[in-house]
Amino acid sequence: MGQPSIAKDERKARRLFNRGWRRNAKGAHADALPYLREALALRKRALELVEASPDAQQEEMRVRRHKEIAHTLTELAFTCFQLVLPDEVIDYSQQSIEHFREIADGAGESGALNDLGKVYENMLKTSEAIEHYQEALTLAQEVGAHDAELTARRSLFRLYTELKAFDEAKKYL
Known about the structure:
Mean pLDDT: 93
Shape: globular
Number of helices: 8
Largest sheet: none
Helix content: over 70%
CATH architecture of the largest domain: Up-down Bundle
Number of strands: 0
Order of helices and strands: HHHHHHHH
Structural class: mainly alpha
Radius of gyration: 18 Å
Distance between the termini: 54 Å
């Protein structure tokens, strides 16, 4: 019962996620939300089933489910960002960070922290933005995630340049 139900839910979740993603790509963000939210619910249910299973080989599936949930949450955060729903963006972003942490995916966590920094920056909460960009940079360096490190450096350089804090900006070149 467990495996077929999980596989069926995941196929449906993948279809829903893809529909939401395509709508986002076309700029139809409000239309994307219900698809992505339903995909998230199915993926969370699949994770619960995997975690309830006594099978020792479930660890790989558990990691995969957390990663799928984190990516769905990231897409939901992007969608809500486009719809100017900052509280939801922050909530989805923080949940995404937690799922990446759960599976020790430092590169994914760093990317999610950087995304959250962008949200705070757009909300004109500069100190929170810098804090998240710094955390993303430190983590990316620790895990050797060079793309995530470069993204965090660019974010910090750009933000400090906009603040006309040029000496601070130079540190991130």
